[in-house]
Structure formats: C-alpha cells, structure tokens
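Fold this complex.
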Amino acid sequence: MNALRRLGTFWWDFVIGDDWRIAAGVAIALGATAALAAADEPAWWLLPIAVATLLYFSLRREAR
Amino acid sequence: MTAVFLVLSAFLASAVEMVEALTIVLAVGVTRDWRSALSGVGAATLSLAAIVAALGPALTLIPIDTLRLVVGALLLVFGLQWLRKAILRASGYVSLHDEEAAFARETAEARAAGLERRAGLDWYAFTIAFKGVLLEGLEVAFIVLSFGSTQGSIPLAALGAGVAVVLVAVAGLVAHAPLARVPENTLKFAVGTMLTTFGIFWAAEGTGARWPGGDASLPAVLGFVLLLSVAFVALLRRGRPAIA
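Structure:
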C-alpha cells in the first residue's frame, strides 16, 4: 500500500506539480475546445487564451 | 520545421536534466566511490532504455488523434509547470538553480552518510547516482517518447536527447566539476516555452481543432508563448502590485 501511495505521489508531483489548478484548468479548456470543434466552430484560439489565463492566476497566487 | 523543433526541444530538455544528473554523480563519485557511482549510472541508464524500449512501440499503436490529445494534454500540464517555475526564477520570486550550490549540498550529504557495502558496492553512492540519473532521465524519456510518438519519429527525438547526453558527459569528464557555466535557468525557460507550445498545438489538434495554416502555425504559437512568458517576467519584476 505504501509503495502504491509513493508511486501515486511520484506521478502526481511529476505531472501535476505545485499547482493542481493548472491541470484542472487545462482539462476544462480541452473539454471546451473539443466541444467547439465538434460543433464545427473554430476552436484553435481557445487553448492559447486558456494558457495565458491559467499562468496569470497561478503566478499571481505565487506572487502574493 | 517541426523536425527542427522536435530535435531542439529534446536536446535542450535532455541537456538541462543531464547537467543536474551530472552534478549528483560527480558529488558521490568524488566523495565516496567512483565504481559504485558509475554502477548506479549504468543501472539507471539500462532501466531508462528498458522503459523507452517498452513504451515506444506501444505508443505507436495508439491512433494519432488520441495520442496527440493525451500527449498534448500531458505536455501542456508538464510544460506549464516548467514555464511557471522558470518565470518565477527569472523574475526573482524563486532563487535561481545553482549547480555549484547543489554540488556543495550533495557533497556534504555524501560525506556525512555512513558506509554500507552491498554486492561489493558503496550502497549510498550507488543508490544516489541511480536515483539521480533515473529521475532526471525519466523527464527526458517522457519528452522523447511524447514528442517522438506524436511526430511519428521517436528516433529523431532520441537523437536530440542522445547528443545532449554525450555532450554533457564529455563536458563533465573534461571539467571534472559541476557545469555551473551552462546557462541552466535560461535553458529551462526555453524548454518550458517549447513544451507548452507543443502541448497547446497537439492537444488542440487532438480535440479536433484545426490550426490556420496547419503545421505552419507552430512558430506563431511559439512566439505567442514566448511573448507571454517575457511579459509575465516583466510584470513580476516591476513589482507585486503589477500582477498581484
């Protein structure tokens, strides 16, 4: 059990890192992009805007 | 163009991680025992090769759009971590990574640790070198596999990483000291920018979105991420009220 927990913690730190909100935001942005693409609307612009927004709020939290 | 980005990204990421691994290996090699440290390096290298050999062919069996979505999403989250840390370092909110300080810390810990021999090796030197190379190398393996599989060219990505490993190893042998002069923080900034760029590009394609101009829009995405990062560094440097 301990080994499993350590493995889970390792992968969490490796992929998610210090700010889990970034990963959550990316997941939401990808869902929204997929929904736009499925509706045959231009969707390429959404991820760059999401990245700018997520970085801004993450850096702001860290700077406070 | 994409191939150039691919090789360059794998090269830079690999160089940064290998500089850190080299510092750890040098510290235990110099203070403890070279044979044990190098055995750790060998064991970690074999483990990494086995991981790449096992996962590489498996990844090529996944449909390309699914692969781009999953790998793009992972790269984006992973790249944003790097970029966030690099921006905080560049703006002075987090101290810069210093190989000489890391070397001094590792050396002090290695001197303080007790001696335990297993299989004829200094077990401390072996495990620290093994863990250092494996953990730093895992990031490189992740980048090589993700970049290589989504572009259909794992060998090309491996080439970029391999050249970096050889260059850093040779430089370490020649210098016989941590590579403190490598502009590591700048390299990390560049790698974070590239990982985030590829993450945005592939994840969007994986969801079914199409970029205007196809692959030709990749430099524009790179320019956007770079400008954004530089702007955040400038904002943070100007003082907390600007961003907070």
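The first helix of chain B runs from residue 2 to 31.
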